[in-house]
Amino acid sequence: MKNPRKLSRARKTLPPDKVMAPLISWLNSEQPDSVIHRMVFEIQALDRLADEIDWSGERQDQASLRQEFRKRGESITSKMREFATYPAIFTNRLYRLPSGEWKAMREKPYEVVHHRYAASADPETAVTDFHQTLPFRDLEQILERGWAWRLRKCALTSCGRWFCARRGDQIHCPGERCRQRRYEESPQYKEWRKNYDAMQKKKSFGSTSRKS
Q1: Residue 198's domain spans which residues?
Q2: Same domain, 60 and 133
Q3: Out of 14, 59, 90, 173, which residue is the most buried by the measure of CB atoms under 10 Å away?
Q4: pLDDT digits (tens, 9 = 90+) for 113-133
Q5: Residue at 2 is within a domain
Q6: Are residues 143 and 184 in the same domain?
């Protein structure tokens, strides 16, 4: 049997799409209302909220926004406590120096501390099933690397599959199929298609008239 520690070290050298492949495969095969699905949605919302916060402390009107950020981090950690061991999310905070300058406690909006044992976890109710804990560990590794933003659902409603984004503005599965299909469903395309068909019909009618 291979040493799991060696596997873990080797996995750190893999590109994002390879590391995230097992979790993405699991998310696409399971029911969308699982605990892990809900955590992923909340983590994505946490990342979006982090981008709105000015961590320099210059904007004092963001106190309520930072408070909401802390609450969301605590909410995610509370869901993680359903597992026998879980990572905890520690959100960033600002404090004032004697000079009056504001400084962030952490370098990142939030940090993940691993393998915390739930002190109040009931052995009879704690999630220990391998089928659920394995994707949970994959999610933990993704959080550690700061790749939560890469985990996305395809914007095409009829697809909705999870994928690993390569760019910040990517909203469709890799390739052109879903992007093209979503464009074809848009009002802009339908209007263009209507005008195009009318023009082609007019050309066809004009060509037939000249021949007759």
Answers
A1: 175-212
A2: yes
A3: 173
A4: 665 555 445 555 555 554 566
A5: no
A6: no
Q: Are residues 181 and 205 in the same domain?
A: yes
Residue recorded with tokens 């320099």:
56
Cα(196)–Cα(193) distance, rounded to whole angstroms?
A: 5
CB 57 within 8 A of CB 103: yes
Determine the Cα–Cα distance for residues 126 and 129; give it in Å rounded to an integer: 9
Helix axes 130-144, 16-29, angle to 10 degrees: 140
Q: What SS3 class is residue 77?
A: helix
Same domain, 99 and 181: no
- How is residue 150 annotated by DSSP? G
Our count of domains for the chain comes to 2
Integer Rg of the chain from CA = 24
CA torsion through residues 194, 197, 200, 204, sign = negative
Q: Which residue is listed with tokens 């999630």?
A: 127
- DSSP-based three-state secondary structure for 103: strand
| Residue 70, amino acid | R
Bridge partners, 162 (sequence order): 153
The CA distance from 31 to 51, in Å, is: 30
12-65 residue pLDDT tens: 567 888 889 989 998 998 777 777 888 888 888 888 888 888 887 777 788 888
Say if 194 falls within a structural domain: yes
CB-CB contact of 156 with 178 (8 Å):
yes
Closest CA to 104 of 95, 112, 117, 91: 95
Q: Which two tokens stand for residue 120?
A: 């109040």
Which tokens in the block code for residue 78? 């509370």
